[in-house]
Design goal:
Helix content: 25-40%
Radius of gyration: 25 Å
Shape: globular
Strand order of the largest sheet: 7-6-5-4-1-9-8
Mean pLDDT: 92
Number of helices: 11
Number of strands: 17
Strand content: 15-25%
Largest sheet: 7 strands, parallel
Distance between the termini: 65 Å
Length: 478
């Protein structure tokens, strides 16, 4: 209890010290650390740029279909379909035998794609566990396959240098105690309390079983029953953090005592990064309010688990690479989802996409990893920008017809030094255009007029500090 009170006091002090002059209300279950974490673990997460998400479970067996009919929702939700008998679905685990599953193959593909971390589903809303949990029989241990899939994923990806975050759905249709609304009857209350302890047990079990994981990614936390448990969820989060120091948890695990999710009543992020932008990108960096963030993106328009037929528009490698640049230009990570089939194979279309992204990352990865939004340089219509120390990266998606990239530098900031194509190191001609009406310096970068320079490509610009020195550009030319 003393430790808990100390943590609460530290959070309150942090709030006062870092946000002086701002009017806030005292919250017991609001943000524990307003502002960005700056520890090594969070800095590493921030540096990844690109991640992989894998949704996998027994829902891959029907693959979004039953008796020749296609479910209209996301394939991993098929148990919720009125035309799918619950008892039939709940016995699918007896058929789950992914004989083609090779975690090392998955991890190598993710590495070649350029992913720095993976988020892997341990348990989706159906409650089926891909690890042999001792708190339920509804696990991989009781399938024909039997072997611990989560362990194989954690070991294989860790061996490739890829950080592992585990997805966990709080909502659980199989356990028996889950309720969408807060129970009011005595039987429901007892079941709910049992469910809360079950959830705690499983989360601590995952930390015990897989101590190398770097984060937990929560789902199924939006219903009133869980939103109305701010005290329990907050206590559990602190228990998780004490057991696994440095662990990274997103903003959707819990609510404050007033029912606010993602951000508390004071507008402070609940958790370590903003998870608002699922299958969506902000229009501008101002929408992010200075928070760390990621975007988890499906390849079809919606649907995370394996579907035998993709019935909606399917994103191209070009679109996903563009999203990657856009995310990074605003300081976020893009996490691309894959849905393996019931045998453990990543579908050919997804493999092709991973390969194409990997080819681009092999050339342009320096413009993604460990970068930040460009500092004091106005965005242009030809694409996006990232920055790493004194290197500015121009991600070109709309190549100007005249082959000239124009860049506007703010007053008393930078001027360009050496400018090269990241693809092959060719140096570009730079022209000082002068100053515009806002007294900002304008520069033209002349692109080679050949077929090799087509989108998306990256130009690397050496930045020279021009503060107080009108001749810095002339000096850089020498």
């Amino acid at each position: 209890m003393a430790l808990l009170l100390a943590m609460q006091l530290n959070a309150q002090i942090h709030n006062v010290e870092n946000f002086k002059g701002r009017i806030t209300i005292p919250l017991k279950h609001g943000s524990d650390h307003p502002g960005k974490r700056t520890d090594e673990a969070m800095n590493r997460w921030r540096s990844h740029g690109l991640g992989q998400f894998i949704h996998w479970g027994v829902y891959a067996i029907p693959g979004g279909e039953r008796n020749g009919k296609t479910y209209g929702g996301a394939a991993e939700w098929i148990r919720a379909w009125s035309e799918y008998p619950k008892t039939e679905y709940d016995n699918l685990y007896k058929q789950f035998n992914p004989i083609d599953f090779d975690a090392r193959k998955w991890a190598r593909q993710a590495k070649e794609m350029g992913a720095g971390y993976v988020i892997f589903t341990t348990k989706h809303h159906d409650g089926f566990c891909l690890w042999p949990s001792k708190y339920t029989d509804y696990t991989i241990a009781n399938t024909p396959y039997k072997k611990d899939i989560v362990k194989q994923v954690v070991d294989a990806y860790t061996a490739e240098g890829i950080d592992v975050h585990l997805y966990f759905s709080v909502m659980d249709w199989a356990q028996g105690g889950w309720s969408y609304e807060t129970p009011t009857d005595s039987v429901g209350k007892v079941k709910w309390e049992t469910f809360k302890q079950f959830t705690r047990n499983q989360l601590l079990e995952l930390l015990d079983n897989y101590p190398n994981i770097k984060g937990l990614w929560f789902d199924g936390t939006w219903d009133d029953s869980w939103v109305n448990e701010p005290g329990f969820a907050h206590s559990l989060e602190r228990e998780i953090r004490a057991k696994s120091p440095g662990i990274i948890i997103g903003s959707r695990f819990r609510a404050d005592e007033l029912g606010n999710r993602q951000c508390d009543e004071n507008g402070d992020l609940i958790g370590d990064y903003d998870q608002t932008w699922e299958r969506d990108l902000p229009v501008s960096v101002e929408q992010l309010h200075g928070n760390d963030w990621d975007c988890c993106m499906t390849i079809p328009e919606n649907g995370w688990g394996y579907a035998k037929k993709w019935t909606s528009y399917v994103k191209t490698p070009y679109e996903l690479i563009s999203m990657l640049s856009e995310c990074n230009s605003m300081g976020g990570n893009l996490v691309i989802n894959f849905g393996p089939d019931s045998k453990g194979n990543i579908r050919p279309e997804e493999t092709h996409i991973a390969s194409e992204i990997g080819k681009w990352m092999a050339i342009n990865g320096d413009a993604i990893r460990s970068t930040k939004p460009a500092d004091g340089i106005r965005k242009q219509g030809w694409g996006f920008m990232t920055q790493k120390e004194n290197k500015l990266f121009l991600h070109v998606y709309n190549k100007p017809i005249n082959n000239i990239l124009r860049l506007e530098f703010g007053r008393k900031t930078y001027v360009p030094g050496k400018v090269v194509l990241l693809k092959d190191g060719r140096k570009l001609k730079v022209e000082d255009v002068g100053r515009n009406k806002r007294n900002c310096r304008l520069f033209n970068f002349y692109l080679p007029n050949d077929a090799d320079v087509s989108g998306p490509f990256v130009v690397e610009v050496e930045l020279i500090d021009n503060t107080g020195d009108k001749d810095a550009y002339q000096q850089a030319k020498v």
